[in-house]
Amino acid sequence: MSGGTILVVDDEENIRDMIRMYLERGGYAVDEVNDGIEAVQFARQHKPDLIVLDIMLPRMNGFEVCETLRAENNQVPVIMLTARDDDMDKIMGLELGADDYLTKPFNPHELVARVRAVLRRHENRDGEPGKLRVGDLEIDLNRREVHIGSGVIALRTQEFEVLKILMEKPGWVFTREQLLSLAWGFDFYGQTRTVDVHIAQIRRRIQKSRVRIETVTGIGYKLII
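Predicted structure:
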């Protein structure tokens, strides 16, 4: 298997079997667990290349799994599965550091395509050289760290991506749709509320900096000093 190792976390055996079949056809090795605590333990020990993570799990739900891994600075890509077409589930998952989501029932071919897209984005991120600086705010692209002066602040995966995009073009106005496309890699079907949630989090984290994210009413956001 040359595509990488995918951990599938779901308490329904038929769902795991279906996902395994399509991912293996796509060239991926697949491991499976059926509850949240096992998922965290497996991710710590075996370091999969990506996790397909159901929200409704025994012992520890998918939100808690994602939050636990991100708190440990484990940046393994995560695609969340939700049984409800609920915007709040999607927003919460993305806010906790998930890279993508799919609503059950889903087309397994789409899942494989999403896996490829997320892995490709993470590979591209790993290869970015250098640093970005705006005012007293600096991003180290290799270490994936954000500095205010001599201090380091913690950002979740997508918060980092949104801030990086804004810092690449200070003063440039980005629409919410542009930020969704650039930070997540494709449209989230009108889920622009996701951008607002991440901007609010970034503002709190960089509040000691002279740099500000300004809302451009009716359009989007820009970075200013």
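Summary: The chain has a mean pLDDT of 87.
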